[in-house]
Design brief:
10-stranded mixed β-sheet, P1 family peptidase, 329 residues, 17 strands, alpha+beta, 7 helices, globular, ArgJ-like_dom_sf
Amino acid sequence: MEIDTIATEIKATDIEGLRIGQAKSEKGKTGVTVLLFDQPATGGVDISGGGPASRETPLLSPLTANNPIHAVVLSGGSAYGLEAAAGVMRYLEEHGIGYDTRFAKVPLVCQSCIYDLGYGDPSIRPDAQMGYDACVDAEAAKEPKSGNEGAGCGATVGKLFGMECAEKSGLGIAALKVGELKMAAVVVVNAFGDIFDSTTGKKIAGLKSPDRTKELDTCAEFLKIAKPTDFYKENTTIGAIVTNGRFAQDEANKIASMARCAYARNINPVGTMADGDTIYAVSMGNVRADINVAGTLAAKVMSLAIERAVRDAAIPDAEYLANCVRLEK
């Protein structure tokens, strides 16, 4: 994606108070990416897919009290991976961070997981220790890497015909600045559909023929299936938008829903019942900005992160196939 002259690319860690840490298992091909906030933050969420694996998302509903959150966790492992948040809570408690009740400080941690059990060793899933290790990694305050890192280690795309016809994807991170408004996106692209360059419309990853010599169009192949079928459901694109803009909880929810436009620009098909597509939006600053501008910038930076997730995670076919779990027929 080309970045125009109005929006300037920055580092995600240029957003004051945001720290990002990662941990992974090379054998399991799975991992955790954690976003820690130095001060309690305001959050929102948009869930457009039919099968999310998540925790504490009701905290972000505009129908609840304005609950501050202390971290967002993205992980592999499907619902098993939700255990990683326990390690994040332990880390935050040790550092005196949490919602102050009469008897304890309770860290409020939101999390979403991708299904990556078909890649690497499915018996290895993100656990509490991996979540804790990701928090320790964030202490270095270094710029996190995109690609086969953290929660993106087992991400794949284009899975209509199974893992053997899919391609490797991963974790994408991008950040932009317009004036004083900063916006970062962290996304794990584990989509059912194909991934496209939003500027050119060219496919950059997705469904391949069984012999892997041709690129196939998932949408076209999908539409050929006229009757209900139990197609592959091991998909989800999960991401987070973080801004130094000052927004209330209902506004953060709107920014999350506007950021979903990036999913539509870059992924086709998207938001199916085979996906658990989720986007968090987190406000952790005091910069005043128009919510429509913020939502537009959120979609732009999320689109950039999606494309980066695919391009930075590309590996040779032989390496990819060697890590796919083979099912007995």
